[in-house]
Amino acid sequence: MKFAVILLVILIISCVFGSFITQNQTLSWYTEHYSERVAAAIIALHLDDVFHSVWFLVIAGVLCLNLILCNLTRIRPIIDKIRRAGKAPERFEGYLKISGVEDPEDVFEKMHFPKPAADETEDGEKRLFASKNRAGLFGAWICHLGILLLIVGFVLGQLTHREYTVYGVAGETKTVGDTGLFLEINDFQVELRDDDTVSEYRSRITVYSAKDPENRASSEVTVNHPADLYGYRFYQNSTGYAATVKVVKEDALLQENVIAAGEGVRIEEKPMLTVFLQAFYPDLFMTSEGPKTASGKMDNPAYLYSLYYGEDLLGMNVLKEGEEIRVDDYVITFSDPENYTLLQVKKDSFTWMALMGGLIILIGLVLAFYLQQENLAAVREDDGTWTVYGRSGKGSVIFKERLEIAAGKPAESEE
Amino acid sequence: MVFLAIEQYLFTSVLILYVVTMLLYVLYMILKKETISRIALIVQIVALVLHTLAIISRGIGAGRLPLTNQYEFATAFAWGLSLVSLIFILKFRFHLLGAFASPVIILIIGYAAMQSKEVKELMPALKSGWLGLHVASAIIAYGAFGVAFVLSLIFLLRDKMKAKGFLDRHIPPAAKLDVISYRSVCLGLLFLSFTIVSGAIWAEQAWGSYWSWDPKETWSLVTWLIYAVYLHLRIFAKWKGKPAAIFATVGFIAVIFTYIGVNTFLPGVHSYK
After folding, report:
1. A395 neighbourhood in chain B, CB within 8 Å
2. pLDDT in the model for residue B267
3. Extended strands (E) in A94-138
4. Contact B213 A23 (CB under 8 A)
5. Is B69 in contact with B50 (CB distance < 8 Å)?
6. B201·A355 Cβ contact <8 A
7. For range B87-115, the mean pLDDT
8. Are B263 and B70 in contact (CB under 8 A)?
9. How much is the pTM?
10. Which of A21, A24, A56, A397 should one mutate to test binding to chain B, selecting the residue with the greatest count of B CBs within 10 A?
11. Predicted local distance difference test score (pLDDT) of residue B162
């Protein structure tokens, strides 16, 4: 148990590091925010990605091993303890003792014990005995089993899960990574309230396999309501703006592409020339800090673009609806802004195990904390009165108080 | 809007009543009259009832569960602490617990009073049936840890002052204080576990991952681990009494950091800014 506590303390310290040190940054980022020496230490000790570092996994592994050994070595003693707790002992060593009780069955009842079993020793001593909450002795064991399941489920899930992101606008069909699945975005709506806040993101999707395109499954996906299709779970992850880029040369449309904010498109005739849609503002207003949007409504749409020739920036500006970028013989325009939907597609075959682990932990805690194993016995004395003996696994102070109230007499410890 | 206005009147009344509760308990300790203690308890019960009504009014006024921003959670946290402390006062017949719990309740309500009371609509991620279960269990957990913290302070104070006379008669013996504090930690740990499990189920539906090491998640785990260490040390190192009281106090600092510190210093998906 001492080793387990050391592991828990190491885990606490690791979590503190992992939460205070911004994760997954580069050496230059850490150098900029800390000192050069600290940055080097962060990278060397993998503190830039604490929760995926080898040493963190080793700690988790050792903790699992500790839990396995702990549960294996404790199962037999617990079963023996439960068996022993169900039988009246020869001597009531370590029990609380109250002498001169007239009606012992009343004490059993007031202490909420089941009806006691009566027996008689070889010496002709009459005894009553009852035990309760023996299942509580399993509490910590069950809790440890739950923790073990949770960690194993989580680690296996991390190692084996498959995850993809798919984004697009309504009407587009996208491939889902290497799954062999196609995802058709039938519709995507960003539902706004009167105060312009987002009420819901709602995607309507159809999924089908490349092997069997006729067998199609459709569903609606909203935040908090993922869809389970073809063995994968589809989540409504986020959204952003997309727009149509048109490239015209001498009044002839050369190309037309839909791109999301942050994406760029090459001019096919002149591949060194690339136009990027840096950001979109549905309701543009200019501030000293740059362009911003006043609302989510398309009242004054504008596009922040950048134009590159190779790696050289040719220009960057805000373009309003109907305005054009002219470069060489090309006329580039942005139009038809719309929201794209970003869906997360995931398969984690061990989520159930982690969830089961969590539920088992809860059961274990309830048993350990609220089913305190207690024994109560009464022995008939020669003068006709009874001596009551009681013992509680934990919280003996409170148990003693309850026992004294039930018996109406002070209790003393039996040596 | 009417219900929100009612909530503000109730909130102010509740704050005043908790201050009155604290003053009555102080008066009780000075005058040593049992009647004052009984009045203080009644005032605390009335404050809790009005506090409940205030939360319900805000819920009706906002048209949703009022458990989604710093103000709402702070007032609910104070409510949880008040509820759990009352349960412990009545269960263990320990009236003076109210004298030590009420200043902490006032501090938390005071923190709530400093937060924006603006009612905002829920973002899509928060529109889930899990919100109520997840946050309500967190409130009980935090309330229970708060009571354990108060009991630990009383334990340490009793130890320091070597309580005699009135305090000795009205504060349970050290061994009993230790057990009550332990029970409060158990209640807190059970509800914190439920908070983490329900949050994980919800996160899986909303964000596609039941655990993503978000600062709030990580610090909930840190808090859980601290109290797990507390329980283990009680068993194998016999860390009861003073060391356990100091440990429970440190645990509550982690609770407060998880609640306020993380939102302030370590923004993540739980920040909802």
Report:
1. 179, 182-183
2. 64
3. 96-101, 117-120, 126-132
4. yes
5. no
6. yes
7. 92
8. yes
9. 0.89
10. A397
11. 64
| pLDDT for res A415 | 58
Q: Given A2, A193, A354, which is nearest B236 (Cβ)?
A: A2
| Nearest Cα to Cα of residue B220 among B181, B189, B247 | B189
Contacting residues of B for A70, CB less than 8 Å apart: none
Count of CA atoms in the C-beta half-sphere (13 A) of B107: 9
pLDDT tens for each residue of A190-225: 998 888 788 999 999 999 998 888 999 999 999 999
Domain spans, chain A: 2-75+141-159, 89-131+372-413, 162-240+344-357, 241-338
Nearest residue of B to residue A161, measured between CA atoms: B209
Residue type, A157: G
CB A334 within 8 A of CB A343: no
Is B115's Cβ below 8 Å from some Cβ in A?
no
Average pLDDT over residues A7-20: 94
Ordered DSSP codes for A152-218: HHHHHHHHH-EEEEEEE-TT-EEEETTTTEEEEEEEEEEEE-TTS-EEEEEEEEEEEESS-TT-EEE
Tokens of A252: 């002839």
Cβ–Cβ of B229/A354 closer than 8 Å? no
Q: Provide mean pLDDT across the span A357-362.
A: 97
Q: Do A355 and B194 touch (CB under 8 A)?
A: no
In chain A, the residue whose alpha carbon lies closest to the alpha carbon of B189 is A365
Tell which residue, A19, A42, A34, A38, has the closest CA to residue B265: A19
**Residue pair B61/B39 in contact by the 8 Å Cβ criterion:** no
Which chain A residue's Cα is nearest to B216?
A: A19
- Is residue A226 within 8 A of residue A236, CB to CB? The reply is yes
Residue type, B18: Y
Are A405 and A106 spatial neighbours (Cβ–Cβ below 8 Å)? Answer: no
Q: Which positions in chain B touch A16 (Cβ < 8 Å)?
A: 222
Are A2 and A27 contacting, i.e. CB atoms less than 8 angstroms apart?
no
Interface size A-B, in CB pairs within 8 Å, comes to 120
Q: What is the ipTM of this complex?
A: 0.90
Least confident of A156-165, B27-36, B230-239: B230-239
Tokens standing for B175? 């061994």
Question: Across residues A69-78, what is the average pLDDT?
Answer: 94
Q: Please write the tens of the pLDDT for every residue from A376-387.
A: 999 998 888 999
Concatenating the DSSP letter of every residue in A17-40 gives HHHHSPSS--HHHHHHHS-HHHHH
